[in-house]
Design brief:
It is a single chain. Helices cover about 65% and strands about 0% of the residues. The two termini are about 20 Å apart. With about 220 residues, the chain is an all-alpha fold.
Length: about 220
């Protein structure tokens, strides 16, 4: 029997509940607090920088946790760290490739956030007057931050910085297309509901996890 329009809608609703039902975004699923304070925002930005690198995303998550575990839980503290110590912590957390360059990038990023925004990315938002385009521009002026990093960062904080929504990174959109949920951030925002930037962040984060963890077969079951 052919699938009816009604059953297709119900299937999609069930899938949405499974994806967004945890009430947590990508970073929160992996143990990061996503709240609007300087330390949390900077840690999410570091996670975004690490996730944008090629390689196993679990190494990025492990390295992002290793930074605050080493005592560098804020831009100011990471800015005061020694290059050799950053290299050691990154290597111990599983980073491969040019770890020296990555250690430099993270140190430069921390110092820039301290020098330009006193260690508080909320000041970047204030300087931008809550204009999403300007926020993106200022973020990309930071060391190690390109458009991909910005998408990953804003994906996580769009429930806090509501003016930037809707945001969906490349992996979330790949999963959305494969699962028949849409092809754009606007499509996903429509599914999440008008003004539901928090639920949208949960949905987009869950979709990114599906693609990274290759969980498509599980969802099809």
């Amino acid at each position: 029997m052919p699938t009816t329009a009604t059953s297709h809608v119900e299937d999609r609703k069930r899938l949405l509940r499974r994806l967004a039902g945890s009430g947590r975004g990508f970073a929160e699923q992996y143990g990061f607090r996503v709240i609007n304070n300087p330390s949390s925002l900077f840690q999410v930005l570091c996670l975004a920088v690490l996730l944008a690198r090629r390689g196993d995303f679990r190494r990025a998550v492990d390295s992002a946790h290793a930074l605050p575990a080493a005592g560098w839980d804020s831009a100011a503290r990471l800015a005061r760290s020694l290059h050799a110590d950053r290299v050691r912590v990154l290597r111990d957390s599983g980073q491969r490739g040019d770890v020296d360059a990555l250690a430099d990038t993270l140190g430069d990023l921390a110092r820039a956030v301290v020098e330009r925004y006193r260690g508080d990315l909320r000041r970047l938002r204030a300087v931008a007057h809550h204009d999403p385009a300007r926020e993106r521009e200022l973020l990309t002026e930071l060391p190690g931050v390109d458009a991909t990093v910005v998408d990953l960062f804003l994906r996580e904080v769009q429930a806090l910085w509501r003016e930037v929504a809707p945001v969906a990174d490349r992996r979330a959109l790949v999963a959305a297309r494969r699962l028949g949920l849409g092809r754009s951030a606007d499509d996903l925002a429509s599914l999440a509901g008008s003004g539901e930037s928090e639920r949208l962040a949960w949905l987009v984060g869950a979709l990114a996890r599906v693609d990274l963890e290759k969980r498509y077969a599980e969802l099809a079951a």
